[in-house]
Structure formats: C-alpha cells, structure tokens
Amino acid sequence: xxxxxxxxxxxIGPKTAEILKKxxxxxxxxxxxxLPRDYExxxxxxxxxxxxxxxxxxxxxxxxxxTRRAKRRNLSITEGVVRxxxxxxxxxxxNQSYRVRQFSPDKDYYFKGTYELKNGxxxxxxxxxxxxxxxxxxxxISPVYVAHGGLKSNDFRRLINGARDKFAGIPDLLPTxxxxxxxxxxxxxxxxxxxxxxxxARQYLAYEELFELLLASRLNRRENEKLNAxxxxxxxxxxxxxxxxxxxxxTNAQRRAAWDIxxxxxxxxxxxxxxxxxxxxxxxxxAAMAAYEAVLGGLQVALLAPTAILAEQHYEGIGPLLGKFxxxxxxxxxxxxxxxxxxxxxxxxxxxxxxxxxxxxTDDTEFDNLGLxxxxxxxxxxxxxxxxxxxxxxxxxxxxLLAMTATPIPRSLQLTIFGDLDVSVLDEMPAGRQxxxxxxTAEIDSKxxxxxxxxxxMNRAPDAKxxxxxxxxxQIYWICKAIDDTSAxxxxxxxxxxxxxxxxxxxxxxxxxxRTKRLREVFPDKKVEFLHGKMKPAEKDAIMGxxxxxxxxxxxxxxxxxxxVDVPNATLIVIENAExxxxxxxxxxxxxxxRGVSESFCYLLTSGDERPSRRLRELEKSNDGFYLAxxxxxxxxxxxxxxxxxHGALDLRIASLTDTKLIARAQRDVEKFLGLGDGMAKYEELxxxxxxxxxxxxxx
Length: 700
Known about the structure:
Blueprint: H1 14-22, H2 28-32, E1 38-41, E2 54-69, E3 76-84, E4 87-94, H3 99-102, E5 109-118, E6 121-131, H4 132-135, E7 141-144, H5 153-161, H6 181-190, H7 195-224, H8 236-244, H9 252-265, E8 272-277, H10 283-296, E9 300-304, H11 308-323, E10 329-332, H12 339-348, E11 353-356, E12 370-376, H13 383-390, E13 400-405, H14 411-416, E14 422-426, E15 436-442, H15 446-459, E16 475-479, E17 489-490, E18 507-508, H16 512-522, E19 528-531, H17 537-549, E20 554-557, E21 570-575, H18 583-590, E22 600-606, H19 614-621, H20 625-636, H21 638-645, H22 660-674, H23 684-689, H24 691-697
Parallel strand pairs: 4-6, 8-13, 8-14, 9-11, 9-12, 10-11, 12-13, 15-22, 16-20, 16-21, 19-20, 21-22
Antiparallel strand pairs: 1-7, 2-3, 2-5, 3-4, 5-6, 17-18
Helix pairs in contact: 6-7, 7-22, 7-24, 9-10, 20-21
C-alpha cells in the first residue's frame, strides 16, 4: 500500500499528482510522511468586542477583501474585515495576495495573530487562518503544511483528511517498538487532539529517523570492513626524518591525525578516514605526510581537488616538499599540456603522487598501483565521482581513503551521519595564524567607516609572509549575493517576523557587476575585478590567478571563493547582505583572510534597521569554527548543514541531532537489530528505505 503511487489517495488527480511529484511526494508513503511543519492552536477564541492588544484568536466570517501595491517596491498589502456577533476588526497581510482567494464569505474561520496599533488604527496583523469545521475535528489544533506549487497548507489538510481511512493499513517498520506505534504516530501527527499527541508522535518519528540513519551508517562500516587493502608498515625513522626537516613545527593535533592515519594504513581493511579542520589548521601538511608514508610502502597516491587553482596550490606546496625526499609528483588538470605523455607515466608507475581535478576521473587515467586516495573538500564531489576514483586500483585491492573538509562538523553529526567513518580533528592552529577581527556594519556607514578602512588596507605594505610579486599593497575580497541585477532582493534570514510581515523585510541586493562599477568609481587608482560562478572555468582561473599574484586590489565575487586559493596578502573581506547567509558559510568566507602574518578584518554588512541576528553576533565574537558549527546546528538543524557538506539531502524532518538521549537509545537498538543476522532481510521496507542514507554517507 505504501509503495503505491500517490494517485491512490482520494482527491489526487493527474494535475495534483504532478505538483506533488515535483516536491518529491511520489508514493503513498511520501504523502503520509509529508508532515506538518507546525501547528496552530485555535482553542479558546476571544470575542471581537473583548479583544485587547497582543496575541489573540478570534472566530468569525471575513469580507471586504482586497489587495493593493505599496509605494515601497516588492510589497503588496491585502486587507479585509473579520466580523462576529459582537463587532468587527481590520485584518492585514503583507505579500500574501493569495488570501483574497482563500476565504468564502459564508464560512466561519479562526484567525490567530497580533492585534496592534498601526497608523492610528488597531488591526490584526498577518494572522494565520483555518476553517472552523477543519479545526474542530482536531480539538482546536490545526496542522500547518509547507506549500508546494499551487498547493497551500489548507489543500494538504483537505487531502490528508480524505485519506484518514488508509492510516489503519500502515504496517510496522521497526522491530524495536510496539506494534501499531508507527501508524498511530503518523495519524496523530496529522490529526492531533492535544499537544501531548503532537509530542508523542514526534518522539516516535524522530526515533525512526535516527534508527534508519544509524543503521545505514553501521552497514556502511560493516561493508568497508569486508574489503582488503595493501598494508603499509609504519616507517618510524623515515617519518621522523621528514618531520625534523620541516621548516615549521607541527601542532599536536597534526601529529595525532598523522598517527591515526599511519595506524589505519597498517591494517588489512582500507582506511576510511575524514580529516576535518578549520580553515588554516594544516590539513594539507597531514595529507602530505600520509602521501609520503604510502609511497614509502610502494603505493601511488591520487589527490583530488575541486578546482584547478586549488590543485595547483597543492602541487606548488606539496610537490617541492616531497621532492626533497625523492617523491615524484605531477599535476593533472584540464589545462595540463602533454596529457597523453603524463598519463603514460602515471600508468607505468613513474609518478608517485598525482594531484589533479576531475581529469583524474577520466577513463584513460590509469594507475600502476593506486593505494591511497586523498579527496580535498570531499563534499564537492558526488558519490559516483568518488567511487570512480576508488575503483582505479588495478590490484583488485581497495585503496585507502583520506577525505578532507574545512567545514567543522558538530560532534553529533560525526556520530550519526559520519558514523561509518573514522574522524580526525585538527582543533589547533599553527603558530603565527592570525585571528580575524569581525565587525557588523550597517550599509549606510560604508562611506564613513568602511571605505577609509579599505583605503588603509590597500596602503599597507604587502604581507610579509607571502605575497604576489605584483602586489602594491594588501588586498580585499568583497562578496555579493547576486551576479547581475535580475535578482533584486535576498531573504532576510535574521528577521524575527513571519514571512511577508513588515518586521522581516526583503533586503536590497547590489550585484557583483554593479558593486564592481561602484568600487571602481570610489577607488579609481585601484584594480577592481569581479568573479562569479557562471564564468567559464578558464576565466575564473585567470581572475583568481591574477588576484593571487597581487595584480588585483579588490576582487568582487559571489561565494565561488568560499573554499579555494590561499592568498595571504588578502587581509580584508566585506560580506554584503550578510544576514542572508548561513553561519557556516559566513565562517568559510571569513576564512579567506587571516592567512598571513598581518592583522585581518571581516566586515559584515547588514541592511535595514533591525538588530543583527544571533548568527551575526556569534560570528562577531568567535573565530572558533567548531563552536560556530554547534551554534549553527541549533539554529538551522542538521538538514541544511548537511546539505552544505555533501551532495544529496539528509532530509531529517523531525529528529534533532542534539537529542543525545534519543541517539543513544537508537544506537543501542541498532546494535541489537544487527545481531539478528539474516533475520534483517524480512524487514524489506526498512532495508529499502535506508539506501538513500547509505548513498549519501558512504565515501567508497
């Protein structure tokens, strides 16, 4: 029944089914698991005559509905009058013109919102609304669904109401809970009679999600343990010599991570390790130490980077370092000349370490004895791309895998999503790494505060650590949300009001191209260029190369520079419309500066007169990526964070990865379930359902 197409639900015809399928709701199961995003409690309404300022619930009919455009751009105002037998009040919605079509004048509705004084007159502002006949079925509690296409929340309530009789046929899913709990929980999630019903339903559904995720992770680890790899004996004297000849001292975190890797490579099963560290924590050096050990063991190494610039940076940093110890390193990108000759050398084993981009994945790139794969910014590659490289070992043995990410991952995510991986954390910064001073600044202050600060930066002598030969002074990143003027606004993610409310306005966006033009006017003697994702790869590489060499003073860009080239001479980054970015992304962008020995700055430009969001305030006070990752998890939830880490959607609807007690319970029950052995096969729906998690969490 659950695997049947969604058209099996009463009231869903071909047109509605098409809208649902575009939203990922293809089967009856998908339909039942399209859970309410929230609930409105309309119990104990107040008569209109007795209303007082504040949050209220009233019950009545609505008429005189109309919509008009405000003088302010991109704002529509919908107004009407709600009446009961004691009086009438004005209601107002912003940017919700569909409200005109939502109501029937002869039906009673509940309205819940803020009753307040506006422009000398009291009004009910941006209320939620529900048909009385629908709400009273649920004891005064109305579920609120995410709108999809032309289907609004009340459309989903109507459709789910037509499917009430099908809930009885929902089979059990998990072997660890009492029979019938699943169908009862799903029913109560859609038709609660009390707040306790909602709590109980969500508790089970959260447990179910965690159970599936943890089971997928454990099965991935079990499959990896069945593979065989080349064992690499630890060569202590050689590694000691290597470390002693480094021009700097390793951090204790780098030493621990390298030791973890060496122990892994001594095992018969392939290493499956994630190396995570904040921007500038020294991941590349740990990767170089891993590559050196693998080559000493007679293996070839492939290092896969997401961009040509980043691959070249690794080549320029790692190549000479390992070359002193006789390691033969080559660079393979789309721009590499004499590719056939180089690929022949790789195939014959004349090259020990190949650093490259997607060019490493082509069918004609073959290895003699590939034994270690290192993937930088692994989330930028899909599962199939990673697996393609892992299958290039001609020996039939699985290569060891070291994946790296500069996005700090909260520990709760490590234990669940990445439970099939061993994780090493670089939680120390190398000596000399400068913290970045972060400041929140209103755009209106640009002329008074920001432009003088930019001038001062560009007049400072080039950074003493490393700078482009052509640098006249220190350099600046300026980040914009849009490429051109076709995107006029950006969502204000820091607003506290409801969508469409005047308290949560859309913020004006200045595009990359317009900002470049403006900065050229402000700084006519400086070189200002722009960069964005729609440019051709060769164009992007040329711009970034020019910026890295110091030819460009100000680089105006979209977030395409979020992870990439190391430019120690860039010591100021300006992030425009900062409130429209997530915390993790803001931290990554800030990581573009502070890479040299000079003091560096990050300016977060905000629009409007609202108090800065907690996201921005947290970023202003902390440079600790791991602390910020935990804050981000609490503010945004795991789905959005994981979407930034990995191709594929985590799609946790209910579960919170901060609920350590529920995670511990699910972990215990998963271990019991795995003890069933072949008995797992009879749980067909469960085993089929976890495949999506297995695909997006596995690395090989």
